[in-house]
Amino acid sequence: MTYASVILDIPTQALDSAYTYALSADLAHAQIGCAVLVPFGVRKAIGYVVGLSEKVPENVKRLKSIEAVLSESYFDEAGAELAFYLSERYIAPLSSCVRLLLPPGATPKMKRVAGAWEVLYPKVQQVDERWASRLPAADEYTPRKSAVKQIAILEALKQGDLKVADLSAEYGSVSAVIKALEEKGVIAVEERRRVRGAAEISSAFTKRIHERPVLTPDQSAALEVIGAAQQRANGEVVVLDGVTGSGKTEVFLCAIEEELKAGRNAIVLVPEISLTPQTVARFRGRFGDTVAVLHSRMSQGERFDQWDLIHSGEIRVVVGARSALFAPLANVGMIIIDEEHEGSYKQDQAPRYVTRDVAEWLVRRNGATLILGSATPSIEALHRAKTDDSWHQVVMASRANGKPLPEIQVVDMAREFGAGNRKMFSKALQNALDETLDKGEKAVLLLNQRGFAQFLLCRDCGFVPECESCSTSLTYHEEGSRLVCHHCGYEIPAPVTCPDCGSPYLKRFGAGTQRVEAELRVFLGERACEVVRMDADTTAHKGDHQRLLEQFAKADAAVLLGTQMIAKGLDFDDVTLVGVINADTMLHLPDFRSSERTFDLIEQVAGRSGRADLPGKVIVQTYSAQDGAIAAAARYDRERFLEQELKLRHELSYPPFVRMANVLIWGERESEVIGVAQQLFFDLMKLSEERGAQGIQIFPPTPCVLSRLKKNFRYHILIKAQPTEDISAFCIDYFRSHKPHKTVNVSIDIDPVSVL
């Protein structure tokens, strides 16, 4: 008898381990990674096999049996091990961890129908198309003159194979004709797989690269360090600390080439969907059709096709967002995380994993190499490189073309205001825009705030329209004259008069990208110049990122205006000016990473300027000109910034000097939320005392900065531990056994990137 360990596809902390089922002889084809149908209590459930054994389980008198095998194997033993690691490290339901390994939209589900549970089979499947091809015998075959369609089809096939569907579209119904020609042996018809979205993946950016650039000394030195790590195969980490334009991508490509020559494969992660077109172009240009792409803007069918190609073994390199880390790519020898400092590498739903840490676990397990690339590596990565012998920092201090980094000019907007300038563009930025566009060059303008204005305010009574579900003001959008909550999506028409006092004096305060665009168009006047805006509003649909970037690339003179999605990864030779409209948008947030994020954003966006032969310039507008992060960024003085920031973090006990967990408690009734939060705090304090956990600090519950979100009141409890303490092990048993409250939700975020 064979026994199977099965993780049930039921997302609850209570199911904290696999269940054992008997596997009958007629289901002997079951493998690790298969979906199976099993009895569970009074119902049936779908689960995934994570282990097989011939050994009789201990202390089990009677086992239930697996009823059916529902799929092929989606993952192997290593995938099962990864699911258990994620569950324990991030205190997440096992089923949520397994789902990361499954094909998008192509797994069976359970559905309750008329009081009974039934298996709902997936609709997303492989799509096959019929193709017709001309055979040599067609040269000897002469159709009757009246057989017009036969003649036309044979003539068309001289140009190459064609889809039967295309022939039908051109000539009408051709089924009988195709069948007749096939029977005569003059054409062949076969089923071929259609890969959805393949044309979009091979974008206009993609060009086959035949010539390799000559490597700079910095690039060669970086490849030596990476090569040595590859040879040792101990799961080492290389922090590729290179200024913008230093040629980090070429280092990635060369390192992957060596991995492919050795018969191993690679995963490349990028933080933004907007980076994907250009990044994919570089990798497909070097490695052709062996590159697969995975990101959330693809349709479910497109993602399934890419996943399935990877699963089949046809793919050598996977490029995508953080979830691509779990692609079914065999024999991975290298994982690359580009722009590793980005907050988007933190998953915001269970399991709330940190991509960098999971990637490190994977390369250690597999004897692979992890490369973390960034012009502004995270403080945690830099700290590890100095304190961990298996981490190596490689500095690439110069641009690949030998050109200097652009000059950064900081403009004090408080002084501009005092001098009588009431516009959102400083005199310096106005003059620089004029000069840049007159030369037929391009500019990039960054404002990390979408919408037209941050909020409306009544100048008579001080009323500010707020979201009815969140503790935040509504953002004014001029398009459609509407007020929108950027947290929950709540939307209302913008009032003409104050809803509170009836005053007509409603003023728009703050500036978003829509307002900047409007004022920019006024400033440009009749000038022949493209203005391309990239934010969450203009990139809401599939293909928008690529379309807008191509529009910007084709223009003779243009301004690319956008939020932080334009700050990194974009490489245009004719961009010579970068303007940061307001560098303060993240600086004063009550979050321990606010200074780091501000510094990173300025450094990253500055790097979009002067990347080729033309010199670049950067103008940073701020009301906090003396702030340490802004001043250090303006001088490219990271050492000074780190000295200040690390001192502050050490004094306040923040990462990298501690590990953190953020326990979030939320519900619609504040009194109930407070009650549950206080009980949690009491329980955790008691647990700490019982275990004598000297390196653990537990802070009393407090309202979150965003204290109400989507009609829910939000409180949190911070847990801090010494870096050597296993913060997950301290509290996992408690949270796994914690009985859920009927109306109050509790979640725990291990190693949060933000505590807002």
Please, how many domains? 5
Q: Would you count the extended β strands for me?
A: 33
Q: Using only CA atoms, what is the Rg?
A: 29 Å
CATH C-level category of the largest domain: Alpha Beta
What gross morphology would you assign? globular
Percent helix range: 25-40%
Within the CATH hierarchy, at the fold level, what is the topology of the largest domain? Answer: Rossmann fold
CATH superfamily of the largest domain: P-loop containing nucleotide triphosphate hydrolases
**Quaternary structure classification:** single chain
Side by side, the strands of the main sheet go 13-14-12-15-16-11-17
- Let me know the largest β-sheet: 7 strands, parallel
Strand content: 15-25%
Averaged pLDDT: 90
CATH architecture label of the largest domain: 3-Layer(aba) Sandwich
Structural class: alpha/beta
Low-pLDDT regions: none
The end-to-end span amounts to 53 Å
Number of helices: 21
Structure description:
This protein has 756 residues and is an alpha/beta fold. The protein has 5 domains: 2-120, PriA, 3(prime) DNA-binding domain (GIY-YIG endonuclease); 127-198; 206-396, 3-Layer(aba) Sandwich (Rossmann fold); 410-452 and 511-649, P-loop containing nucleotide triphosphate hydrolases (Rossmann fold, 3-Layer(aba) Sandwich), CATH 3.40.50.300; 659-750, Ribosomal protein S10 (Alpha-Beta Plaits), CATH 3.30.70. The chain has 21 helices and 33 strands. The strands form 8 sheets. The chain has a 7-stranded parallel β-sheet, with helices on both faces. Strands 18-28-27-19-26-25 form a 6-stranded parallel β-sheet, sandwiched between helices. It has a 5-stranded antiparallel β-sheet with strand order 2-1-4-3-5. Helix 16 links the parallel strand 25 and strand 26. Helix 7 (217-232) packs parallel to helix 8 (248-261), helix 17 packs parallel to helix 18 and helix 18 runs antiparallel to helix 19 (638-652). The longest helix is centred in the C-terminal third of the chain and has 22 residues, at 670-691.
